[in-house]
Amino acid sequence: MGLRLFGPSNFRLAILIAALLAVPVAAAAQGDPRVIPPPGTQKKLPEAPSKLPKVPADRARGLDFLFGALKAAPDEDSARHVEARIWALWLHTPSDTAALLMVRAKAALDAQNIDVAMKLLDAVIKIRPDYVEAWNRRATLYYLKSDYVRSLEDFQQVLIREPRHFGALVGLGTIMQDIGDDKRALDAFRKALAVDPHLEKIPEKVKQLSEKVEGRDI
Fold it and tell me: For the domain 13-29+59-213, what is the CATH code?
């Protein structure tokens, strides 16, 4: 059964949405989230490719360069290569322990053992609270469990640390669309495209939502 409109869970969700949109994803802040639908059958958010390139020594400078290259990518193939390098930087951690736990969490998720993956990611975040990709992975797991409140909490942590995280922006937009908040979904997807113009399926979502929210051009 969906959440009631004025229940404590939805009130908390509304506060989280306002906080998210006020910091990295600014948007109009009117209206409460609607009733959350039952879990879908094919939930999926952006994730790192299985094979990633080596990470450069200067991580911050590397990310700045890569985000510039991503915007300038001439085609989707070029963009996919740049995205892979960005994911590699996001996944890199100087902590061998955190890296090992992330590998085990990925293996647990691949085996559909979400609870084990969640506990492993909890441990990663506890020892490396600055590790952006651990927050993003856990946000994705919460989304898969239809726990939108906790998913938004973790996406907020991602975007505070890395406002250009197109995966988290797509995640935010997907949750907004799931709960029927098309205006905020559109805003989040547009911000994701501003970072990565070649995101798969997002241009179509923006087109559909813009027609729905803003109307067709005459």
Answer: 1.25.40.10
